[in-house]
Known about the structure:
16 helices, SpoIIE family protein phosphatase
Amino acid sequence: MSQARDHAGAHRLLRPIRGRTAPLRAFAQRRATSQLTAGVPVLPLLFVSVIVLVDVVGGAGMIWLSLLAAGPALAATTNGPRGVLCIGLLAAVLGARLGIRDGVPAGELAAVLSALTAVTLASGLASSLRGRRERVLAAVRSVAEAAQHALLTPIPETVGPFRVAVRYSAAAAEARIGGDLYALVSTPYGVRLIVGDVRGKGLPAVGTAALVLGVFREAAYDEPDLLAVVGRIERSLARNLGGDDFVTAVVAGYGQAGHLEVVNCGHAPPLLVRASGSVEAVEPTHPAPPLGLRALSGELPSLQVLPFADGDQLLLYTDGVTEARNHDREFYPLAEGLARHVCEEPARTLDALHDELLTYVGGRLHDDAALLLLRKPAAPRTATAGPAAPGPIASASAAPGPIASASVASGPVASAAAACGPLASDPAVSGRPVSGRPASDLVVSRATGVGSDRF
Length: 455
């Protein structure tokens, strides 16, 4: 029986593959055609054809034949040595035929063909060197991408209770890696993250970024206190950095339900987006110096505790975003852009922000830029009990008096009583604060009628 099911499942899997055979075949043909045309020196061929046509129509002879040498020179910029030699050979053959047809003296024709041969050989050598540099650059890019994936490990869309999205752009486009750093890990002490910016950019800042990320990932698992995590990073940088090197960073943690801990070390303030849509900057209450400079100032970082409820979002970024300028030298308004594009999907929000940022600066950033957005989705609602059966007690539960207060403890009937608003006779739900908390932070327990904290 199970084998029959497996066999049927295999047929179900094969059906869509057969249906897609024609599109796949068409895609393969288009790819083969594009590869073939990519190796053909179309532009040099067109240039040589124009020169030949002008000479045939006008019969100018030597005036136009000398321009045939531009064909292989142009091919060296777009094609490999084989394409350059083919264009040079074609130009030499056509030039000889046209020279003989136009009656060009043998000495002058030999000089033109010799110059064409020399240009062809030089262009072939230049094309070979260009191809070698391109291969080296491709290898460097692949190594840089591998290093970036090793340092800035991809963050999943869901980490703990959060939905997360990250966008990163390096200013050194050839290397595709820069001095900005980010990490988000789930630890026994809750979800912890860091976003930072190393002084400098490009490959020289990669070593410092690797050091910070390595220490953070270890300390985030070992240290129960977020300030202790920052302290370990500071001590490691003090031992390994130079006197003028530093790292600005924001370290955050979500260890206690409903509260977010933030430590800002000289970094741009994160942006907190409430569930209502309002955007506010989380300015540090006691500004601290960047990591690596504590010995110079002697100031210690402080820990901020923020309320972080369901539906709230936190955006951490680097100065490559806020210091991006348009053609009028105006800075990019990140808070306004976030308010325009914020939605319930962090990935969609950052896609819109990143596209708008590139459009704002004209297509390319001049500094490394990192964006990390996390959102705490609303907790799924628990199934409520069915409607209370009609009866004397259910109808009396809405009436004022002792019966109304007693109905709270009567099991399923409590849901009907709660739907009528707060019960004035019960102090737990009378609208007065209980245990220092406002009544809006309390819910009525369906079983006992006693107020309980809602997280």
